[in-house]
């Protein structure tokens, strides 16, 4: 009888252990095929993402200098939908302990945040380090780690000291490369003993289209007919700015890999914005146009940082407007190979050819975006469910296709999904209850996570997923009226309240990532 009881006890223990073990998959880097459709690898990062200007506030606190977004939002409040700015944002600078508590209850194992450049270096290379800024990030990193949350740090997410704009027009000058490396070196030195995941720049492709092609983001540079700015040249400047950003990235990676990586044992990558571009018809012209759309968007940045050259579609169409890499720069690009790519992904479009066919004017139709018109609809069929936000179309299959495309083009490179999420546009009649009952966000995230799993089963080497965003925050030109948070933030009190999606994400993580370490 006794032996039988021991036998039953052992069997139940084994099955208990099997359940715990089987809820996530132990996987070696060589086998990245998911066999169990319900699970992610045990070391998979499930996180939430943020950025300094959109979250921190404290815009003049403890030595921070003014940055490009401080100046832009103060000088032109009318350019922001609710005439607001990031002076206070969601005050994470003062409330990070409370926010870490929210992360703990969500069950995330990583938090993506960025360094406010002008908090650490108020005047770039031209002044001294602001040690209060260093202390702030040290406290944030330590507090995250003490709760088992890995810091996933972006060196630069759109904001830079205004002094760099005033002195040499920021990304239009190669000087910016030196400034960026200066910042990167300081961050690796002060934080790299604890930060094991670094990304250099956030979405240079999308940022530069807005800042130097359409001119809607600072420094508001563009030319007609692309946008209405008092200075700039949309046909040349975006490519100069991106060139400097690519070289700045490569220099930062080089410093990390030669000076820090061996000892600190972290990894480093870059973040690009991606969209899936579906040819609107089976014609060769539309298929090639969809490929050109990719070339002029994410491949613009990824091809040089991975393969050391611009996509051939850009070289062919842009001619001398596209800067060239010197032989030494090509060598450096190839030498400073990144460890992973960060993928921000929100939407898909149909693409129609405008190179060989006549076309309406519209987004993407011009030479500087590859003569590839972006459309929401083909006749009366939309690319996915359309939303209140003109650029957000719910089309998870596009995400799967995008990840397979990247896997193929960049030879199975490791990827982190550094942003994916759904924005609720707040109208005058929207109630707080409606914002809290965010079933559309749940539908969106669950569709995109299913697509992610399918892509991983197809072979995509994805190592983590970050929801954009932990909290409602300052959404650039939309101000606080476009809300991406899993937590609602009251505009007056800044009180954080979980939305339905927060408990949904918490359950999702719990079900998919329970490992024996948790
Ligand atoms: C990407 C950007 O990195 C982030 O700053 C922005 O808030 C989200 N997209 C949503 O638009």
UniProtKB/TrEMBL annotation:
The keyword rRNA-binding does not apply. Its EC number is 3.2.1.21. The active site is at 419 (nucleophile). It catalyses: Hydrolysis of terminal, non-reducing beta-D-glucosyl residues with release of beta-D-glucose. It comes from the Eukaryota. It is an enzyme of class 3 (hydrolase). GO terms for molecular function: coniferin beta-glucosidase activity. Residues 1-22 form the signal peptide. Belongs to the glycosyl hydrolase 1 family. This is beta-glucosidase.
